[in-house]
Automatic annotation (TrEMBL):
<keyword id="KW-0067">ATP-binding</keyword>
<feature type="binding site">
    <location>
        <position position="794"/>
    </location>
    <ligand>
        <name>ATP</name>
    </ligand>
</feature>
<dbReference type="InterPro" id="IPR018303">
    <property type="entry name" value="ATPase_P-typ_P_site"/>
</dbReference>
<dbReference type="Pfam" id="PF16212">
    <property type="entry name" value="PhoLip_ATPase_C"/>
</dbReference>
<feature type="region of interest" description="Disordered">
    <location>
        <begin position="1164"/>
        <end position="1187"/>
    </location>
</feature>
<dbReference type="InterPro" id="IPR023298">
    <property type="entry name" value="ATPase_P-typ_TM_dom_sf"/>
</dbReference>
<dbReference type="Pfam" id="PF16209">
    <property type="entry name" value="PhoLip_ATPase_N"/>
</dbReference>
<feature type="binding site">
    <location>
        <position position="392"/>
    </location>
    <ligand>
        <name>Mg(2+)</name>
    </ligand>
</feature>
<feature type="binding site">
    <location>
        <position position="814"/>
    </location>
    <ligand>
        <name>Mg(2+)</name>
    </ligand>
</feature>
<feature type="binding site">
    <location>
        <position position="817"/>
    </location>
    <ligand>
        <name>ATP</name>
    </ligand>
</feature>
<dbReference type="GO" id="GO:0045332">
    <property type="term" value="P:phospholipid translocation"/>
</dbReference>
<keyword id="KW-0460">Magnesium</keyword>
<feature type="active site" description="4-aspartylphosphate intermediate">
    <location>
        <position position="392"/>
    </location>
</feature>
<keyword id="KW-0547">Nucleotide-binding</keyword>
<feature type="binding site">
    <location>
        <position position="394"/>
    </location>
    <ligand>
        <name>ATP</name>
    </ligand>
</feature>
<dbReference type="GO" id="GO:0016887">
    <property type="term" value="F:ATP hydrolysis activity"/>
</dbReference>
<feature type="transmembrane region" description="Helical">
    <location>
        <begin position="1018"/>
        <end position="1039"/>
    </location>
</feature>
Amino acid sequence: MELCAKKHPPEEERRVRANAREYNEKFQYASNCIKTSKYNVLTFLPVNLFEQFQEVANTYFLFLLILQLIPQISSLSWFTTIVPLVLVLTITAVKDATDDYFRHKSDNQVNNRQSQVLINGSLQQEQWMNVRVGDIIKLENNQFVAADLLLLSSSEPHGLCYIETAELDGETNMKVRQASPVTSVLGDISRLAQFDGEVICEPPNNKLDKFSGTLYWKENKYPLSNQNMLLRGCMLRNTECCFGLVIFAGPDTKLMQNSGRTKFKRTSIDRLMNTLVLWIFGFLVCMGVILAIGNGIWEYEVGACFQIYLPWDAAVDSAFFSGFLSFWSYIIILNTVVPISLYVSVEVIRLGHSYFINWDKKMYCAQRQTPAEARTTTLNEELGQVEYIFSDKTGTLTQNIMVFSKCSIHGRSYGDVLDVLGHKAELGERTEPVDFSFNPLADPRFRFWDASLLEAVKLGDPHVHEFFRLLSLCHTVMSEEKSEGELYYKAQSPDEGALVTAARNFSFVFRSRTPKTITVHELGQAVTYQLLAILDFNNVRKRMSVIVRSPEGRIRLYCKGADTILLERLHPAHHELLNVTTDHLNEYAAEGLRTLVLAYKDLEDGYYEDWAEQLLRASTALEGREDRLAHLYEEVERDMMLLGATAIEDKLQQGVPETIAILTLANIKIWVLTGDKQETAVNIGYSCKMLTDDMTEVFIVTGHTVLEVREELRKAREKMMDSSRSMGNGFSCQEKLSSSGLSSVLEAIAGEYALVINGHSLAHALEADMELEFLETACACKAVICCRVTPLQKAQVVELVKKYKKAVTLAIGDGANDVSMIKTAHIGVGISGQEGIQAVLASDYSFSQFKFLQRLLLVHGRWSYLRMCKFLCYFFYKNFAFTMVHFWFGFFCGFSAQTVYDQYFITLYNIVYTSLPVLAMGVFDQDVTEQRSMEYPKLYEPGQLNLLFNKREFFICIAQGIYTSVLLFFLPYGVFADTALGADYQSFAVTVATSLVIVVSVQIGLDTGFWTAINHFFIWGSLAVYFAILFAMHSNGLFQMFPNQFRFVGNAQNTLAQPTVWLTITLTTVVCIMPVVAFRFLKLDLKPELSDTVRYTQLVRKKQRAQHRYLRRVGRAGSRRSGYAFSHQEGFGELIMSGKNMRLSSLALSSFATRSGSSWIETLRKKKGGDSNANSPSGGADKPLKV
């Protein structure tokens, strides 16, 4: 990204003085102009061409063009290369220019926005680009913030203002910011014009949630934090106006600092193609060397005798030099083995696949009006090769819509409904929910079924009152009252909103807040608490506290946080209460609920005064401010009194268990990486069928030291190997120990295992000396759950699998904490959910529900991989068949670099005659329908094993192309060698060219598995266009217009009028195609692929349905019992009872792995490194298909 300002050395600190442009300009801070565009009118052409020729392919074809401009070595006209090259460069340039035009438009729109700037004592309208660091700006309601501002004053009381940060972090809830008390009184223009305070703060950085600075004014200093800042990209809401001092402008703002480019991702097919192109280039050089040597020998032995008739060119003085020039001539002629149209076609196909994803109505969420979106066009085929999925839990597998479900208060659990026998009532047996109609401020959407909690509130239980008082005070929720009694809460997290709403319904209603007070309606009475301090939540503390003074003057600290953190900070006196509450926490976690612990502590006035003074000093410190604040927070949050715990339900998204079951059948391993506690994560694992009761064992790693973690991993591996041996797997201990790398015996074990590991254990497992042990153990398991992990650990786990496993990884998440994981994986998928859109912005693909992942991979991904592989195989085949004819012809033309085909045919072959049919196949082809792709997940495995396009398949295509070229040349040559035919060179060229076009058209007809009207039109239309152009180029009209270019008048008409020529073309076509047809027939009969079996079965079912309809028409009565007996297949009962998948057709594959349909997949998987799914229900059936 380019920016208007010049780059300067990094700052150590920033000094900004208000209303002093001259003082601030000496620091040469960046202006507020931004530039995200890359070109202007003058630089577009040179810069864009320079960028395009960074591509090796473009440079290669430019080199060929230069060679063709040298008369001594060029046997083709320059336009055979320049036409396709200019076409490709033009298309790319137009796309780049269009993108840059919109960037220019966006830049101009932003830079020309108007802002009110305080200049010389008055407000003046200025464009954003002219705003400078140190200026004071006035913002009005619903205006975007022009730069990173220090909030000086506001129209709201106490210097408050409200902002929306959707453009910054995707969150639509309002946040509050507050001016420093010393500047909040500067409300009018005259006072602000006199303000000359100086701010010393941190240099520009990309940390959105942190700011550290100090304001110096009137010989005093005042601390500044992120709560005092308004960042560029925010919008002012519900605030009439405010004033701010520009601290960072333009490229230095945190918004622009965070707008770095995403790492460019390449697919495995891209990397393979780069290798293959190098091999082809080497092959091209070898052919050139062979033909050059032949030319030198021919000129020395034969050509020297014909100098009178065939004199050498003036520059050629020897046979050796003639061979040297011939080498370059053949490099030009044979370069079409890798035409430039290959790269254009690949991008067109990928673009088409991306549009199919965007247009898929079955991946559209009507509730949120959110379609699926392919945010990149370069990774579509890799969606068909995924082996590992790394998923967040909250908001990805679950809905992230929190519901207050249960709570524990002073040792008593509330939330369960008991029947008359004292047993817990199930959901369907519950009576009416608690009636909150007595509370006019209650939220009508809130539901709770345990009436005893409301009775405790009404009876005045002090512990229950204190519990809900804490929930109504200890939060950062903003309250908006749209009309009398109609409260609307805006919370930074769904958890907080659920807790405050629960307190609201139980008559502890959070009503309003100011910077120094919180007003709560307790049992109908308004009570205002003085807010003394907020000890905010962060990922390290995992808790938040408030210190308030009650109307009676009592100072109390209220705290809520994660149980692992808070239980360590409780007063040791209430040991029995702690045990009971811990039991309740474990019970809630076992039900998959999210838990928090609540505690409080009374503070003496003298202690608080001393602590507050230390807090002020720490907050104004220039160095080590965060560490000093953390130490003070730690000091006051000790010896707290346990109050209780909350349990919030986060329900599974619709279709998650079914999706995971089907993806597992496709041999995709799913790892869940979550910040939740172990019990909650494990319970969700069972709910979504990742973990099942049928599993051999679930290993739980909770070690706190390196030695403990290593020992637990070792024991897990030993158990897996012992179990495998006891099940008759036949591996000896020596074989296990001698296995090298990650292709160890562990990956071929029998049985299904799962691994659950905690964050502190994972930190040790990811260390360099243990990461391989962890990876080997985890990869042998069917499911892996990592609990209490940080965003960095998520990325490290993904990177570990990428580093050591030759497998495609996919990461899916919905929150900002998933961004690093999404960017690290080969493919990143963002869920547009409740946690903002940061994950979506960092992703390659996005949609709104996890269940759509099944369709993205099994349909779009599999089809994209299939289409791209078939496209590449056919493309290399047709170009080798086309080009190698020149090689054989070289032996019959004295190695003179004479071409077989007309130069116009060479130019148009890849652009017109054969481009559209292969594009249609690459965009529309299918082997089975989308329903079958979803029903038979095993169809996905060829992509994981990279079976459809690899080095072996490439060499098969090349061999077929060379075989075709031999027949294309030698059959017509043998016929035309008979002089009685009266053939000439041009007639021979027409015959070979026509045979080639017909052969490759028939071949693509055989390769096409799914015929559409577009396929028919492109294939037969291309043939028609070929003949139309052929006859036009040999017409009298073109000869009269361009007599030097089109000399062979009537040649095509005369040649194709001879029956012998058509017999030759027919014979050539049959001999080229018949071996392919025979091979495919035998393969289909003897060793069918799984897709062949599925297609065959669908045909049989259609015939059976047709017969059934016929029998119904003739009135034949049938027995349901006998019909069931004949159609039933063995093995479905056990599969259904296992609960892994309730979709019968998905599991039908177990009896479908027929006639080697299973064995060829399993054999290849074992060759790759083991079968991790050897005992899965879909891998065991080996019986022949009976229909």
